Protein: Putative gamma-glutamylcyclotransferase
Organism: Lasiosphaeria hispida
Amino acid sequence: MSLFDYLDELESMAQSAADHDAAPEEADEIGIQRWQKLFNCSYSEAAKKLQEHRAGICRNPVSDAHWELVRADKEAQGYDKEAYEYSCQLLVSQQSRRDSDHRIAATNAVSTSTYLFKLEGPLHSISAIRAAGCLSDNDDGVSKLIACVDDSGLPANFCIIEATTKHNILVWLSSEKSPFQPTFVRYSKADKALSSASHCPTLGVDTTLPQHRLTSSAALPSPGQDEYPVWYFFYGTLADPAVLRGLFWMGDDAEPPIKYRPAKIVGGTLTTWGGKYRALVDATTEDSTVEGSAFLVLTKDQEDALRCYETDKYEVVRCKMEMLDSDGTTVRGLTFRFKG
């Protein structure tokens, strides 16, 4: 902010204080009716808003020069200078609330994040990580040892940690004045929470409606949360066998080979996000179909690889798919629905 900006701000504050020292004007009938119409409120609400605005020392008055620039347009819309000044304050307040909501959402997203942490240096074991992360043996802040290879092609071990554990590790390293640089990789995978008491979540189906609820005689929803093997429907890059071989660490001649079946699902439609990625979402009509490929996922490890590939922008949902290489056999399987 320049010196002139500071001087303008001080002048504005001085004017507000001077206005506040004088007794605020009573809300007049014409002003109340104007505010009722402009700000969509009752007579009593309009009178209260107008009186509070006139009495407010913290309001930012609109300069005469500013008002002259917009006066013709605003008066045609029913504003006077006072009502326009209040409308500007409303816009600033609304933007401030939106910014605050965005900051809270971003903070929540970070606090619920999980990370892959490479076991090396002074933090070469789960027990060392628990100590640095201030975790007890029963704490869930670190879990699942994963053996893989690093960027150099050498064997490496990773574990999954929560955001609070990451923070505690960084604090511990700082307190120890350690030169060690830890490796954190954001661990983001598609949610999977299949209900055993309803068909939720199912592509294109509102499972809260009566016609979609389970009856006492109905079979358990299928597929189940931990049911394998299970059919998955793919419509994009996962329908490329080379992609699956890479995800599953399979060679070209691995057994069993990657095998797809042409299929279509109902209740979904394709859209785009980020300007280039195809994404499956609920359709507005139940008879909407999408053609793609069906693949039989054999194990939870394979499914976890797929979920990590899709990231937390997606969620696993149930779907009904029709195999197109047979006599129209229908199976119940799963797919990835975009959630943003």
Observations:
- The first helix runs from residue 3 to 21.
- The chain has three domains: 3-105, 113-187, 191-338.
- Confidence is low (pLDDT under 50) at residues 17-24, 104-109.
- The chain is about 35% helix and 25% strand.
